[in-house]
Structure formats: C-alpha cells, structure tokens
Amino acid sequence: MTPRHLLRPWRRLAALCCLLAGWTGGATAAGVLYDNGGPDGAGANNAGIAWQADDFVLGGGAVLSDLHFWTFEAAGAYRNSIAWAIAADAGGTVGALLASGQQGAVARSATGAVQAGLDGYQYGLDLNAPLALAAGRYWLVLHNGGFGQMGDPNDFYWATAAANGGPDGRESYNGGASWGANGSEHAFQLTGVVPEPSPAALLGAGLAVLLLRRRVGARRADDVGGDGGGHGDGRPAAWGRS
C-alpha cells in the first residue's frame, strides 16, 4: 500500500491538469454545436407574420458563428434577408435577447420538397458577429426580412422537425412583447467552434507531471533510507506497526 503522504502530490497533479486543460490559447475546433433535426414533412409555422423561436441546449461553452434552417414558402415570399436573434431561456420560454441581427448574405437553395403547395428551401447564414455562449439553454428566433416586416408577402414557413423532448417552439405577433406556444419543433442546425486546450497548457501539464514525479521519488528514497524517522521497512514513523 502506498503511504498517504505519497498520494497527495498526485491528487494535486490531477487538480492542476484539470485547470490547465481549461486554458485556451485561441485554438478551436469547428463543427456542429446543435442539431434539432431536418424537416419531418408534418407541418410548418409562419415566420412572415410572426417571430418564430425554438430552443437549443449547449453542453459546454462555444462560439456560435452560423445557422442553418429549412422552410416551405410560396413563390416570391422570401424578403431577401433573414432577421435572427439568440435569446436567454426564461423558465421554458423566450427570455431577454442576447444578440440579434439581419443578414442579407444568405445561402438559399431549393430542396425539391413540396408541402401544401409550398416549395422547400434550405438556408445558411453567418451571424453578423460570432457569439460566445456558456453552457445552457437558449432560444433561436427567426423572421423573414426585418423584424418589423409583418405584411405581405408572408407565406414563409419555418419547417417542423420531429419532437425531441425539449420545449415546443414559441411565436410572437407583437415584436417579442409576449410569446405563445406554436406546438412544434423546428428544423435547424447551429455550427461554430469549441475552444481546445492550448499547446502551452498541455506543455505545462507535462512539466507538472515530471516535477511531481521527481518530488515523489525523492520522498520515497528518504523514507526507505530510514534517515527520516521511518521504521527501515519503507513505512514512515507515524504509521506504527501492525
């Protein structure tokens, strides 16, 4: 059995490694941060005469950079820009807006799907500025055109997705002053970057291992040698014999 005082440095090492692993030096890994699923063909909610919102959950801190979603829309309904917002969660509904913008540089492509006489499209757009978010629940808000555009043409519908156990989407007809349930999940995907440990942090963790190994080795040599008050059998004097 290893003496307790020899184990303590390794416990400190574990804590130090955890701390160093959390440090970042700008290195990132790009990828999908959240996927709410693609269109399920069951319905859609009007994002032309209302603000539509759906929740998403991040398991850790990340930087959101772009979003993708699916629609069904009538010919000419697209207003040539998309308004978006990220909102905090307020007990299962849309809370305060954390960031918002309107993006005209949008990738838009027909999917070939048709629902209720409306054509399907897939959208992709960069946020006006990347948004750093901590772990937690948030809401994505989308609207066709500017947030203040509520008139015709408005046959622009955010496609639904299969239920996933989270809160149903929300919609607002009064500029976000109040929100009601729309009874649906929606098809969207969020992409961005997740911080990675920096090379300096990893190097620091390696050096810490080497230093602590040397320290523990020195202590073990002192105990075995018997000049530190031990029993001469490798056990410290404070242990006693059994």
Number of helices: 2
Distance between the termini: 13 Å
Find the structural class using helix and strand composition.
alpha+beta
Q: Helical amount among residues, as a percent range? A: 10-25%
- The tally of beta strands, per DSSP, is 14
Structural Rg: 28 Å
Largest sheet: 8 strands, antiparallel
Mean pLDDT: 81
H/E element string? HEEEEEEEEEEEEEEH
Q: What portion of the residues fall into strands of 2 or more residues?
A: over 45%
List unreliable stretches of 5+ residues: 10-25, 227-242
Spatial shape: globular
Can you offer a commentary on this structure?
The protein is α+β, with helices and mostly antiparallel strands and 242 residues long. It has a domain at 31-193. The chain has two helices and 14 strands. Strands 1, 2, 4, 7, 8, 10, 13 and 14 form an eight-stranded antiparallel β-sheet that branches. Helix 1 (4-22) runs antiparallel to helix 2. The longest helix is centred in the C-terminal third of the chain and has 27 residues, at 199-225. Mean pLDDT is 81; it is low at 10-25 and 227-242. Residues 1-29 form the signal peptide. Residues 220-242 are annotated as: Disordered. Keywords: Signal. InterPro entries: Ice-binding_C.
Question: How would you describe this structure in keywords?
Answer:
globular; alpha+beta; 46% strand; disordered C terminus; eight-stranded antiparallel β-sheet; 2 helices; 242 residues; 14 strands
Q: Briefly, what is this?
A:
The chain is α+β, with helices and mostly antiparallel strands and 242 residues long. It has helices spanning 4-22, 199-225, and strands spanning 24-35, 44-46, 51-58, 62-73, 82-89, 94-103, 106-115, 118-133, 136-144, 156-161, 170-172, 180-181, 185-186, 188-197.
